[in-house]
Design brief:
With 145 residues, the protein is α+β, with helices and mostly antiparallel strands. It has one domain. Strands 1, 2, 3, 4, 5, 6, 7, 8, 9 and 10 form a ten-stranded antiparallel sheet that branches. It is globular. 21% of the residues are buried.
């Protein structure tokens, strides 16, 4: 009987831990920007970040797809390529570069809270948001680079 109780507790704990870390990159995520800042070294304060005009992402927010290695934000018309991802104790960590910028993001693995910094030679964007799992079909869990 004791073995059965211990096995039940172990299985329940494992299932809870697995379900608690939904934001692990195995499924695409749609993220709503809650606050964004456009920061320039020539300014004494950052300005509110505004979406690129006419972009489809202006209404939808951000889309992060680790399996396809892409991030789309309403603040840039170009897709940001994910070049590496990893996990720390609480977050999924994403990083990438393109011709003119570098970026880094963290997504809390249990709450979906997002922080992303996009930096180029002129300044930076800082975005805070909330992610939800996309309705897209789940893929296999990615392995860290």
């Amino acid at each position: 009987m004791n073995k059965f109780c211990l096995l039940s507790i172990a299985l329940l704990s494992a299932a809870t831990a697995g379900a608690a870390e939904d934001f692990n990159g195995s499924r695409p995520m749609d993220c709503k920007p809650l606050q964004g800042h456009d920061c320039l070294p020539t300014e004494s304060a950052c300005k509110p970040l505004k979406p690129e005009p006419g972009g489809a992402m202006e209404q939808r927010g951000m889309h992060i797809d680790v399996n396809n290695m892409t991030v789309k934000t309403p603040y840039r018309n170009d897709t940001l390529p994910i070049q590496s991802f990893s996990f720390n104790t609480k977050s999924l960590v994403l990083q990438g570069t393109s011709l003119e910028l570098v970026w880094s993001a963290t997504i809390h693995r249990t709450t979906g809270r997002l922080t992303i910094a996009i930096v180029d030679r002129e300044g930076s964007y800082i975005i805070f948001g909330q992610c939800a799992l996309s309705d897209a079909k789940p893929a296999t869990k990615p392995q860290s680079n």
